[in-house]
């Protein structure tokens, strides 16, 4: 009983896919004979990469993707500030740790309530955060270059309405009179 219900649901599902495919095919398309095709100028991926390496965001401007420039500068500025502020705190705690560990009575710890262990822990915490800032800054810079390169390569990629994908059920029989059900995929590139 369970097997036959499942089989019925599979058949209904496959016919629904066929119905949806037929609905997609009945959409009328406008007359494109009067529309002139848009000429897309090839962009040099090498130029875009070099521009982005020299000045972040310049490759995106070359590719006319101006909306990406503020995102790149927000990432670079955020990670740059993270590096700077954590580096200042790292130096401050390192200086106070050195004042506690040296035998010079003229140097003293400026931070009340922190012993050598606490100062060491804070110094290591700010060093890790500073290193995350460096890594993040580097990743955003590299992403900027890669994005400009990929965007220039994909500038002439065809995304017109002439691309289509059709999915429909397939019923087959074998020489042994076995029955098969499957899904057929047809890709039209015009």
Q: Ranges with pLDDT <50 over ≥5 residues?
A: 18-26
The end-to-end distance, rounded to whole angstroms, is 47 Å
Mean pLDDT across all amino acids: 80
The main pleated sheet reads as:
2 strands, antiparallel
What's the SSE pattern? HHHHHEE
The count of strands amounts to: 2
Question: Which sequence of strands runs across the widest sheet?
Answer: 1-2
Shape: elongated
Computed structural class: mainly alpha
Percentage of residues in helical conformation = 55-70%
Number of helices in the DSSP assignment:
5
Strand content: 5-15%
Rg (CA only): 31 Å
Description:
By secondary structure, this protein is mostly helical. The chain has a domain at 44-157. Helix content is 58%, strand content 12%. The chain has five helices and two strands; from the N terminus they run αααααββ. The chain has helices at residues 2-25, 45-54, 58-62, 69-101, 116-153; strands at 163-173, 179-189. It has a two-stranded antiparallel ribbon. The model is unreliable at 18-26 (pLDDT under 50).
């Amino acid at each position: 009983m369970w097997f036959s219900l499942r089989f019925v649901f599979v058949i209904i599902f496959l016919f629904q896919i066929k119905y949806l495919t037929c609905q997609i095919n009945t959409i009328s398309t406008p007359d494109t004979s009067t529309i002139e095709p848009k000429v897309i100028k090839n962009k040099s991926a090498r130029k875009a990469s070099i521009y982005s390496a020299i000045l972040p965001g310049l490759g995106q401007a070359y590719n006319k993707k101006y909306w990406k420039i503020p995102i790149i500068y927000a990432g670079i500025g955020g990670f740059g500030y993270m590096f700077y502020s954590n580096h200042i705190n790292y130096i401050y705690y390192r200086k106070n740790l050195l004042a506690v560990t040296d035998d010079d009575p003229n140097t003293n710890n400026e931070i009340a309530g922190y012993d050598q262990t606490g100062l060491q822990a804070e110094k290591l915490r700010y060093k890790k955060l500073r290193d995350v800032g460096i890594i993040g800054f580097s990743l955003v810079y590299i992403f900027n270059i890669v994005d400009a390169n990929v965007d220039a390569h994909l500038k002439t990629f065809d995304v017109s309405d002439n691309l289509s994908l059709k999915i429909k059920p397939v019923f087959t029989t074998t020489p042994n009179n076995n029955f098969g059900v499957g899904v057929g995929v047809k890709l039209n590139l015009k």
